[in-house]
Structure formats: C-alpha cells, structure tokens
Amino acid sequence: MNDLIFNYLKDQKISADNLSEEIISNLVSLSKEFQLIGFIASTYRLSDRKEHAELNSIRKLFIAKKIMMVHDLRLICSTFKKKRINYCILKGPALDISNVYDASTRFFRDLDILVAKEDLELAFKTLNDLGYKYMNKFARNSCNFLGNHHHLPIMLNQNNTFVELHHRATLPRHYKECPITEKILKEKISCNEIFIPSPEALIGHTLYHGVIQHEYSIGPVILFDIKGIMRKYDLEHQEHNSYASLLKLELEFKKINELLVDIDNKDEIENFNERLNNIRQNIILEEKEGEKIHISDYKRILKKLANNYFHNKIESIELNYQTSRSSLMFPIWYLKELLKSIKNIRLI
Questions:
Q1: Any idea which fold 84-283 has?
Q2: pLDDT of 191 above 60
C-alpha cells in the first residue's frame, strides 16, 4: 500500500473507480486495523458505486463515533479545568483539537490524557464521577496500581468512549525517568479551551509513539501526523526538535524529515520502501506473518513462550485486569492471557 502513503503525502488525489476487488478489500482491512479510512478517502475519490459501499459505511461510522468522543473529551477537560487538574491531551485527540487535519481525516480509538502525577488520584476520581469505570468489572476501583506502566488501565463510559489516564508520556522500560513529561505539561498550550502539547512536543511524542512504543505496525500514521503538524505550524524546515533530542531520536527525526522533503520535491522515489524500513519496521503496512514453529518442536515453543510471555507479562496482566498477583482472580486472568499467547504461535 505504498501508493496510499506516497500519494497522501504528495497531496495527490487518485480515482478509485478502477480499483480491483483485492485492493478495495485491502483498503477495508487497513481502515479497520489502522483507522486509515479518513486518509484513504482523502487520497482516493470514493463514489456511490456499490464497490465503495463498505468504505463509505466505515467512514460514516467513524465520523459518528468521533463526534461522540470529542463531546466526551470536552466535558472531561472542562471538568478538569474547574478542579485545577494539571492535564494535557495527547496523540490523535490533540491533533484533532488543534485542527491539524479536517474533522473527517484523522480518527482515534481512545482519549489519551496526561496528568501531573500529583493530580492522578483527583483526575481518576473525577472520571469516576463522570461515569468512567475500568473495563474489567472485577477491577479494584483505584488508581494506586501503576506498576511498570505509564497509564492506568483503560476506562470507558456508557458511550463506549475509551480513556487512558497517563501519569507519564513514555514507558518506564524505555526511559527509567520520563525525559519529556514535565516539559510537555510545562509547555502545553490552550487550543479551543483544551490543553494540548506544544507543536514541538506534538512532533516529539508522535515520533516516540511511532518508532519506539509500538513493537508492531501502527501503519503510516506517524508520517501523516508529523507532516500535518509541520504544515500546520510552519515547521517544514525545522532540523532540530528538543523533544526528539531528549528522547534520543534525532536520527529518526532526521530520516523522516529527509523523506518528507524528498516526497515533496520528487515525482518518484525508487528506494521508498527501503527508506521506510530504515526509519522503523513498524510503520510498514504489511502484516508480519511471524515466526513459524513445527508443532513437534517443543523446545522452540517453550522458548518462544518464555521470551514473549513469561518474562514480562505478569505486570501487564495486573495492569490490564487491575488484579494483584496475590488475588484469587489473578490465576484466571493469567491462564486466559497464556492461552491467548499460545494461539499466537504459528505452528506448522
């Protein structure tokens, strides 16, 4: 799907009338997996043809869901402001509030809200009062359970609006002390009466989220976001970003910058896919098939489980289910996640 990446970044509109069934099917999958329907509709001229019906339906559904989420976001932020909670909206919702994109282009799955650690308990109780609860009905209704994570477990309300309440902007396993949380909160700006990161912080956190935090593909959204932020705030020729420096991502920032400049200035880039790979594997659209292991190779199966599951999943299970490992419920969730992990091993 490099055509989608290249043509969107190039601001070129393509007719969708002659797309094959296979390509349309791929676009539908990308829309659902990576929330790309807005970018697809910005690149391909979708019509009322029956072949485009599913894409048009997905787009309408995403728009309706986003309207509800933005309404809920505004209510949260106005309540946080009244209670003097030091907060800042992150990622997709922040880009939407700052009008980096038009309203029907950039969609998001949840609301990411960074709060100062000293305000975390008050923010959590405030969300409770607004009707947000942990997804796991057996969870302790508490925020005293951070573990080795940068946010509380996902909360949701009756509208099925998902919220991640962050107490830091990066994961502890990547940076023992987050190098950018205090800076984001200190340099935040008010946009439409909602606090969002500064333009530099938007770029820096987008870079972290795209090339470090996600071990698997998040699609090309990192490229779209950085280009959109640069265009919105007239930063196309910026060669230095203080947040990228603090995150030790100067090289990745430089490579993305160079690629975006070349796309603007060239009609074709021969090594386009290779340059995407050189930034980071996880921005490619192709799904990774994963390592295949023969069903009788028990040693490799156990090693795979040990490397990918047993080593680092206990704290993850505690966080996701808000259940202490000393709880009677913990073994149930542990076995559930273990079975899920076993299913993900590709046996031949």
A1: Beta Polymerase; domain 2 (3.30.460)
A2: yes
